[in-house]
């Protein structure tokens, strides 16, 4: 049996049913990830206003391979006349630079969080990103290479956030709340995208592209101040938690080690089919996700011909659906597991299949939508929205199989997965460069469909949520 050992529902109602300190920690983590993604994706919107499209050479495109421009709101003509003559390939490089830094701090961030706690790693990581977000306009105007450096440093700061938070969840989330807490916390990423995309569009249109970086950078700094005073690494060190809630959390996690792991079982991790299955689906789903996250505003502007405001607003709609779906699905998955309707492994695999094959099939459909913007937007919304259940799939499975090494696992797997952060824009740039037409985007969507399918197939065959023997000291050979 691979069902998680659950605290009896009677004790949960008595000690953990109401709102407590752990819920505040999760909420602050949610807001933290909202900041993380707001500062990560604002360039995807702002770059549309930053680029001087008329200065970029384009290959001739047949009328049948381009969509007619049905938009007539040309009030703000200057939105097409940014100061930078960056072609599609260079834009992809700029967008991808963030991830060169991002992948480097994943593994050390996860291990440091396990050893010393995730509070300061998570908080300072976001603060670093906020400060350098404020410096982005200055860097862009001064030098392309300075802009590269700023984006890489932002990535270094954000690289610790996901593994640090997973290490914190291992200390704050009881087994019966695991899907809900993991999903709600990480769903802040989708919420941040929902807010930042339309807000960035309006700021670009009415204030100027520089304001995008000033506003979101400042919000990140303010969030950090609250994080410092409201959040602590675990219930055992929180000064304001009730004894009742502390006892509830610690008794719920008693079957696992709650102390600091002494060493990492590298060989066992590297040879674990469960780890490789999670890695395969995490890497491949990240490719499709980053194609959409970084390139959706460009697709909507250059192919579907939405103006800046409509582009930014509609670009955020899929992530609103993703956020809502992630919350509803996590509650549903936790309920199914708690009631023993399905084993934890079966629930995780079904959730993961929805999260990957939903986007795969929707992108396949979008590739044939051609110049029908309404159909394309519905399918793209399904593609992004259905991915919201991923937090109840492979990302919760990391906690299931080895909660004591959750930070390290997330660091390793997320480092590999986020190589797609620079490879996806790079591949997009190579395919689309000087050929920004329907056919080239169709090819890109086909590639993403195949990649999604391959990764999920590996997870369905080899994935599991059974706790691994090497997760506990007493079961490891020293």
In short:
The chain is an all-alpha fold and 478 residues long. It contains 21 helices and no strands.
Would you give an account of this structure?
The chain is mainly α and 478 residues long. Helices cover 70% and strands 0% of the residues. It is built from 21 helices and no strands. α2 packs parallel to α5. The radius of gyration is 22 Å and the shape is globular. 57% of the residues are buried. The N terminus is likely disordered.
Topology:
Layout: H1 9-16, H2 21-50, H3 88-102, H4 106-116, H5 119-134, H6 136-142, H7 144-158, H8 161-172, H9 178-186, H10 188-206, H11 209-230, H12 243-252, H13 266-270, H14 273-302, H15 308-338, H16 344-366, H17 373-385, H18 394-401, H19 406-417, H20 420-432, H21 438-462
Characteristics:
single chain, 478 residues, mainly alpha, globular
Rough shape?
Answer: globular
- Content of β-strand: under 5%
Mean pLDDT: 84
Tell me the series of helices and strands, N- to C-terminal.
Answer: HHHHHHHHHHHHHHHHHHHHH
Fraction of residues in helix: 55-70%
Question: What is the radius of gyration?
Answer: 22 Å
- Oligomeric state of the chains present here: single chain
Largest sheet: none
Structural class: mainly alpha
Q: Would you count the extended β strands for me? A: 0
Could you give the distance between the termini?
Answer: 27 Å
**Total number of helical segments?**
21
